[in-house]
Design a protein that fits this description.
This protein has a single domain, classed as P-loop containing nucleotide triphosphate hydrolases (Rossmann fold). The radius of gyration is 19 Å and the shape is elongated. It has an 8-stranded mixed β-sheet with strand order 3-2-4-1-5-6-7-8, with helices on both faces. α7 packs parallel to α8. The longest helix is centred in the middle third of the chain and has 16 residues. It is α/β, with parallel strands linked by helices. α4 links the parallel β2 and β3. Helices cover about 45% and strands about 15% of the residues. The model has no long low-confidence stretch (mean pLDDT about 85). The protein contains 9 helices and 8 strands.
Amino acid sequence: IERIEERVMRDKFINAAELDKILKEEITALLKENEANEDGDFEIPGNVKPYVIMVVGVNGVGKTTTIGKLAHKFKSAGKSVLLGAADTFRAAAIDQLEIWAERVGIDVVKQKMGADPASVAFDTISSAKANNIDVVIIDTAGRLHNKVNLMNELSKIKSVMQKIVSKAPHEVLLVLDGSTGQNAFEQAKQFTKATEVTALAITKLDGSAKGGVVIGVSDQFKIPVKYIGIGEGIDDLQPFNREAFVDSLFGK
């Protein structure tokens, strides 16, 4: 707001179109530059194999759906993909991941409900390495009510992964529901405390949700938005484009 006020004072203009332009430029500047996959080619950085993505977020934000769509995108780009069902606290989470894996045409590594999530992650990465898989996507439990457990669980999953692939996970993707406003801030706060989040996926930006929360979360936590979910279809996950997003906020 201060930067906008300064520009208005300095330039002494203002009609609606010029104010729109200033607002758009400043909002775009707030959104941290998306460092990777900006052109949407779903290439794996630095020739890492397997490239390991750990996905975090509370239940109900579209985490499993995001994983399924992400797997589809990588597979469509010619990559082999393996999923790991490390959310072992909800039977539904394992079932949903299996449905997505079947839909995309890939495998999922799972254990029985209640199994040690780190053990599932270990099995998944071991299998990926043995089978020369390009991309591993690990689902995790979204339990925020016990933050200490969440922290311990995520750090254990990470350390177990690193026994097989030294720098894993290469990406920690936090999934947030774009229609939940202040809740998304609280979730971002808790997950960034619990683990090192490297990128955001914002879901449910179709319909009436304009996703202004995207701006606040990205700016406050200095984490780039990497993907946005704009619908229910398998292709409705897109690499985030700042300019297009800001244009959509202004209804253009």
